[in-house]
């Protein structure tokens, strides 16, 4: 009794032509976005600090992630938090990708895309909302940020707010440094923080 | 940890579903059926139980989408049991062996479906019998007869796909 199709027969039915599945995927992502079926759309972009994952809801950019964070793990976490209807759909992230390119080229000093802060709440959210007010090219200490966010004593909490910033680079937690001038930690690794500060100092 | 991102589902099962759609409908209608299958699946995905068999679920949706297409064809006055072979996809490099797809297209619909769901998607005959509304024995027979017919056609035409593999 035959249990398998002759291998050649199966192979002959394989999807036509290279790129067919890619084309079908793009068509699916476009239709899904148009019908408001996506919880999260994402793409990756190359940058001087490694590949960045960009993810957006319909409200706006919700997550920027470094390769160090493991993009697959980040996507799974987004599916758990925001819903599993997650597809790669570069077009929803065109504006963010373009502005990041301009930022890394030195020609853009602030970002102008809708942001979705639904991954953050409470004091951490207050911290993140303050960060874009630190001007390009300058830094603040964790203590200064604590003061600005309304809780002068919450210096450590500022540190954890920065360490869990879901929108690094775009929400500039890299501009927060230690009072002694040393860099402090960074989600993307110390080299990434150094690169960003050097870029902005140029 | 909940369900994987839907992107993973497309990556893992997209090729199999396309192969099934091509076998059941031919190359021409397969891509529309594929698109409608995954769009429906995306809509229903959040409510799907976490332990569901994704491939069987997708093949079930693809089966329904294919039936819609076959019904439209039937309404166009083509008797379901005597579907003509569809045109080969013309001049498409990397398209495998179009004559195999044509041979599948010449099978009666139930055989074609049984071959696709069992041999391409790995569905057990018990589930196929539910999909096709026949007894498991009839589903098994349809699959076996389908493969036998395919082997015969391919031997006859001396298709490169048949060389070396047949007893």
Description:
- The complex is a heterodimer of chains A (202) and B (167).
- Chain A folds into two domains: 7-104, Double Stranded RNA Binding Domain (2-Layer Sandwich); 122-201, Winged helix-like DNA-binding domain superfamily/Winged helix DNA-binding domain (Arc Repressor Mutant, subunit A, Orthogonal Bundle), CATH 1.10.10.
- Chain A has eight helices and six strands.
- Chain A has helices at 7-12, 20-34, 71-82, 94-104, 122-130, 142-148, 155-163, 190-201, and strands at 40-45, 52-56, 61-66, 86-88, 140-141, 176-177.
- In chain A, the strands form two sheets. Chain A has a four-stranded mixed beta sheet. A two-stranded parallel ribbon of chain A has the order 5-6.
- In chain A, helix 6 crosses helix 7 (155-163).
- The radius of gyration of chain A is 21 Å and the shape is elongated.
- Chain B is mainly alpha-helical.
- Chain B has two domains: 1-85, Rna Polymerase Sigma Factor, Chain: A (Orthogonal Bundle); 94-167, Arc Repressor Mutant, subunit A, CATH 1.10.10.10.
- Chain B has helices at 6-25, 27-44, 54-75, 98-105, 109-120, 125-132, 136-157.
- Chain B is globular.
- In chain B, 41% of the residues are buried.
- The A-B interface holds A 1-2, 4-18, 20-21, 24-25, 27-28, 31-32, 35, 37, 40, 42, 75-76, 78-80, 83-88 and B 1-7, 10, 14-15, 18-19, 22-23, 27, 31, 34-35, 38-39, 42-43, 45-46, 89, 92-97, 100-101, 104, 115, 119-120, 144, 147, 150-151, 154, 160-166.
């Amino acid at each position: 009794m035959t249990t398998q199709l002759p291998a050649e027969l199966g192979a002959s039915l394989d999807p036509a032509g290279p790129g067919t599945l890619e084309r079908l995927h793009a068509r699916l992502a476009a239709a899904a976005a148009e019908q408001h079926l996506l919880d999260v759309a994402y793409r990756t972009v190359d940058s001087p600090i490694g590949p960045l994952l960009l993810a957006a809801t319909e409200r706006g950019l919700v997550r920027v992630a470094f390769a160090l964070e493991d993009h697959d793990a980040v996507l799974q976490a987004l599916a758990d938090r925001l819903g599993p209807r997650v597809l790669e759909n570069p077009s929803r992230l065109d504006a963010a990708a373009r502005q990041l390119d301009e930022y890394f080229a030195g020609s853009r000093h602030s970002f102008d895309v809708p942001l979705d802060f639904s991954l953050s709440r409470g004091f951490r959210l207050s911290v993140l909302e303050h960060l874009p007010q630190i001007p390009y090219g300058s830094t603040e200490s964790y203590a200064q940020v604590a003061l600005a966010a309304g809780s002068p004593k919450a210096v450590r909490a500022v540190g954890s707010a920065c360490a869990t910033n879901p929108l690094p680079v775009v929400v500039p937690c890299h501009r927060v440094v230690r009072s002694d001038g040393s860099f402090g930690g960074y989600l993307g690794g110390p080299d990434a923080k150094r690169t960003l500060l050097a870029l902005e100092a140029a | 940890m909940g369900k994987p991102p839907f992107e993973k589902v497309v990556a893992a099962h997209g090729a199999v579903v396309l192969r099934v759609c091509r076998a059941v409908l031919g190359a021409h209608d397969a891509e529309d059926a594929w698109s409608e299958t995954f769009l429906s699946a995306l809509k229903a995905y959040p409510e799907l139980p976490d332990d569901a068999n994704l491939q069987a679920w997708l093949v079930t949706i693809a089966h329904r989408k294919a039936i819609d297409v076959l019904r439209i064809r039937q309404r166009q006055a083509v008797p379901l049991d005597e579907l003509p072979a569809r045109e080969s996809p013309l001049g498409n490099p990397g398209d495998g062996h179009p004559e195999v797809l044509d041979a599948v297209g010449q099978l009666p619909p139930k055989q074609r479906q049984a071959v696709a769901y069992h041999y391409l998607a790995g569905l057990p005959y018990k589930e196929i019998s539910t999909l096709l509304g026949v007894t498991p024995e009839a589903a098994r027979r349809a699959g076996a007869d389908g493969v036998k017919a395919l082997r015969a056609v391919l031997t006859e035409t001396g298709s490169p796909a048949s060389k070396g593999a047949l007893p």
